[in-house]
Amino acid sequence: MLSRAFLETADYRTLVETSDRMIVVGRRGTGKSAMALQLRAFLDRDADTAVVTIVPEEHQTIGLRPLAARFGTRFGLIRAGARIAWRYALAMETALALSPVYSFRDRPGYAVLAPHLNPLRAY
Q: Does pTM surpass 0.85?
């Protein structure tokens, strides 16, 4: 039903038509999940495109509280720390998705990255 009722907004068309890499964020109820489902269906048609979906569970995000506490009590510092953690998570998920690709594994820096990817496969 979603595919029939989905309205292709300008934001959605931008995601489909650009070669830039983007991250979609927004408040609850703004249509991010609907957009993600439609975008994934669109991108899955291209065999050369890898789609990585990150959907953290509540029990996974609660583990970030002790990490956030290390940045103190000031909002600006906590926010900066959370951004670093989020960028790290995105980089690791991207590396994990690319790890089966031979040309990625053949890169000089992969030897440094590989030990950090293997524990992720357990999840």
A: no
